[in-house]
Amino acid sequence: MRKTLLALAAGLLLAGSVSAASAADKLKVGFIYLGPVGDLGWTYQHELARQALVKELGDKIETTFLENVPEGPDAERSIEQLVRAGNKLIFTTSFGYMDPTLKVAKKYPNVHFEHATGYKRNPNMSTYSAKWYQGRYIQGLIAAKMSKSGVLGYIGSFPIPEVVSGINATILAAQTINPNIKVKIIWANTWFDPGKEADAAKALIDQGADVIMQHTDSPAAMQIASERGKLAFGQDSEMIKFGPKTQLTSILDTWGPYYIARVKAELDGTWKSEDTWGGLDSHMFAMAPYTNMPDDVKKMAEDAQAAITAGKLHPFKCPVVGQDGKPVECKGGDHLDDGQILGMNFYVKGIDDKIPGK
Amino acid sequence: MQLVLEKRAERSNTIAMVSPLIAIGLTIVTMVILFAILGKNPLLALHAYFIAPLTDGYSLQEIAVKATPLVMIAIGLSLCYLANAWNIGAEGQFLVGAVAGSWIAVKTQGTDAGAWVLPAMFVLAAAGGALYALIPAICKVKFGASEILTSLMLVYVADLFLDYLVRGPWRDPHGFNFPTTAEFDPVATVPLLIEGGRLHLGSIIALVVVAAAAILLGRTIKGFEIRVVGAAPRAARFGGFNADQLIILTFAVSGALAGLAGIIEVAGPVGHLQPGISPGYGFTAIIVAFLGRLNPLGILIAGLFLALTFIGGEQAQIAMKIPLDVTKVFQGILLFYVLACDSLILYRFKLVFPNRQVARGTA
């Protein structure tokens, strides 16, 4: 009996080492995820992209992910674990991994890193993000058309430039439809907390908002809006099943094409450190189908999407007027330049609020 | 018919010693079954969990880094628990210590201050943690407020206070409004012990703390006092020991150690102050304290063991694609078996028949 067990054990170990050997000549690509994979939201969209990557290049690569990695002291270790497991290209998919990624990148110059939504780079560390403000602009147009009360509700996560520029793009768009549009903003101070997000949605509706938009990750606000007979926009993922009569559209993170392109570059030996900030034209994100709106609003949204994609419409076209009533310096010719949007730390005129901590 | 737990007349010291080992054995058996159900090779999985991390220097360092705050906090908690003072709020004391120590780091940023910065941060962090722990202790002694509730609730206060600081006054001006301070200067950073690794001075401090606790409990009157007050409060009163004073003392020491662990974590592996600096160290340390049977050496082993499951869990996730949830299930099962085995040292099952009152106990 004992001998059989030992033989079995040896056999199992052997089988394990054989399968490890056959994988050795494939390029290993690692991913660090903030949340659990789940079935929607920020991390799920990265997971979908990873799956797309495997489908496209599965015979040449082997992928590994670590999920639920907190943006604290553990992140550096998790990234380094992937390096030590032989991963040559590593995607760290949340802002809070910026410093840990940079630390590990400096330690392993022969491994390539891709950090999502950050601003620190290294010769072996790229950054990538999406121009979600373009999608926010389209949402602003729809919201202004659909709102009866003229009050929009906005659930913010953190007052970082990405979120602030999203709020501004929304309002600038809405003002082209209804110059007196109002927005109520609640900061949830979290990316994902269904309880807080639901509370925020309730409070916004109680303050008269009838279209809810969010920069947080869960479908909680969508569900509240649905219960209260209001309208809402999804975030990151398709959320229509949480509000079949509620969702107007949703900004969908579509990282797949980028991941495939970067891994191909790595395979070809042409990978180099870059800063990629892609918009609708480069498919870094997509808009979910326009639903629960009249045909003319839908057409307007589609036209705006086409115009932005073609580069004919810029959400931050000058003049952009600040809260003080003065136009903001126009560094990009006829629109604000990328640097101004990436570092945006002011509200435009018409927002009756101030950025927290400012 | 009814199943009850009956207290054993005497407890076997041998069983008390091997009980954690039985618990670990049962956990491993359960995990083997679980891995088999998941379709993973149980031997390889156990290898990834327990053996692989022990076979290279890098993983050993990481285990030490992970165990450092757990051990330091758990040592402090064990003193409280031995003295029958229930400090549940080490997490809050950890955060306040981190904040208090960071204050110097933030204020001296970019001023090229001298080597006094780090020791001063340590002192302030320990003082901050101790003062914060004194709030529930004093409420307990003066007003009879349950220290379990007050210490726990103060965790959330500390959490929000830290949150306020890094979103407001201490926010990195060049950090694009993200809730974090700027990276600490080198003088405000815990030195690394091995070039290219992450092992830092904190691990040495943790070892010193373990040794000090062992001496305190084993060789001093104060240690004797702590144990007597906890084990036999009446005898302690006759002996002239002041239980109230001990609550104050053990809370203060435990808070100081948690605070010190907090600043070491912030000025060490993290490098700046931000929300989420603790993935629940203050609470996990409660498990470590009991897993180590409130004994300094036991706590050191328990802390290292728990750290091993974290590192091993991560390597299992990479090497065998075993989901993270399995690691959590694993830790839960372990705790369950430890508590179950402990209960059976002190108690035995007994079937009670209400009508006949015939007991058919098993030894």
TrEMBL record, chain B:
GO CC terms of this entry: plasma membrane
GO molecular function terms listed in the Swiss-Prot or TrEMBL record: transmembrane transporter activity
Chain segments annotated as transmembrane: 21-39, 63-82, 116-135, 147-166, 199-217, 246-268, 280-308, 329-349
Compartment(s) of residence: Cell membrane
Record's keyword terms, sorted: Cell membrane, Membrane, Transmembrane, Transmembrane helix
Coiled-coil regions listed: none
Membrane-related topology note: Multi-pass membrane protein
Principal subcellular localisation of the protein: membrane
InterPro entries (alphabetical): ABC_transp_permease
Superkingdom classification of source: Bacteria
Protein name, entry field: ABC transporter permease
Source organism per UniProt: Bradyrhizobium hipponense
